[in-house]
Amino acid sequence: MKLAAHYNKASIIISVTVLFISGLIYYFVINRIAREQLDSNLSEEIGEVVDYVNQNQRLPKSVDFDEDLTTFAKTNLAKFDTKYFDTPYQNPREKKVEAGRAVSTLIKCKGENFIVTIVVSREDTEYLIQIIFIITLSLTTVLLTVLIITNRYILNGLWRPFYYILNQVKSFNVSDNKKMDIIEAKADEFRELGEAVSTMSSRVTSDYHGLKTFTENASHEIMTPLAVITSKLDTLIQDETLGPDQFAQITDIYSATNKLSRLNQSLLLLVKIDNNLLHETEKLNVKTIIREKIQQFNELIQNKNIELDYMLDDVDIIANRYLTDVLINNLFSNAIRHNKLHGQIKITLAGNKLLFQNSGDPSPLREATIFTRFHKGRSSDGTGLGLAIMKNICNQRNFDLKYEYLNDLHSFEITF
């Protein structure tokens, strides 16, 4: 839920609560005022009846003046407090029962006590209260509607700079040289936010390009002496005067140098993947790439007498050609390197899934660590980066890579 929606929700809840409570208070206050006005009118009418009795020394007949019902009841009570109360009112004109208000008090006439009761209709008062309530409810509804619409347009205008900055942050690519624009905002907070984000993006871009340059230069500087060492070792290995011990030592050095070279290339590739330097994409046919790799790795497969079975459908993906080549290359290398003599490799390409299965160590790998960098088996002579590179490539293209050990086969499945 967006911030504006949270604000509108809270604003509406608070407004409705306040207006509801205010409406109740307003209703009871109006009702009380109307009741007090009725009681005041009843008090005046009682006073008129008392004056009539005092002047004429007789009771008036039970009359209906202006639809006010007046009754007299003889009583033995010597004292009676005047009381006001609600009671039904029989409307003589419309012949129906309505809500009424009454007053009763004690009067004396010719030495006898009487309780006089005057009942008046509350229908007009109730109707007036209902009209006031409906008008108040209508005004409240209009007020809430105007408040919601006003808040929506005002908040949309106020938050427009924020969403502009947010969209720029979402589309920001550290590998681009494009600088983030600073929007002119009326609110100081959004203006400062825009300036801070722009400054941060410039700093991140600068640091990124600095790191990129350093990595490329460092890799180049490392590769140069490694190439020299490898060249010298090639020359030494061809020297026929070397003894068996010397030849073995030089061979170990040569192997370690090649491993260091591969490690350097793998680390450089990881840096490029992590920083999205290889973001060019095109339509690729996975079946064609796998067939090419089968030809390339055929000699290694035959050296271990590995049985290769494959079933390939035509599957096209949108990806970087170089990274896809590295991904499938690593799948083949992993399946061959960790296989056993007279083992087997099964490749299945169907739908949006690519499955590599190979025999090997008769125990499953630890799924929690196999894709971490520099993780490798005890007998492995690799760099420990192959699976990490595969995982990073899949993450970059939002492919799903998972490992399973089923039917004595190590299985790597990629969902495109």
UniProtKB/TrEMBL annotation:
Keyword Transmembrane helix: yes
UniProt keyword terms in alphabetical order: Kinase, Membrane, Phosphoprotein, Transferase, Transmembrane, Transmembrane helix
Any GO MF annotation of the entry: phosphorelay sensor kinase activity
Domain Histidine kinase: 217-416
UniProt entry tagged with the keyword Manganese: no
One Pfam assignment: HisKA
Catalytic activity: ATP + protein L-histidine = ADP + protein N-phospho-L-histidine
Cellular component annotations (GO), alphabetically ordered: plasma membrane
E.C. numbers: 2.7.13.3
PROSITE patterns, A to Z: HIS_KIN
Transmembrane segments: 12-30, 127-150
InterPro entries documented for this protein: HATPase_C_sf, HATPase_dom, His_kinase_dom, HisK_dim/P_dom, HisK_dim/P_sf, TCS_sensor_his_kinase
Protein's UniProt name: histidine kinase
Organism annotation: Mucilaginibacter xinganensis
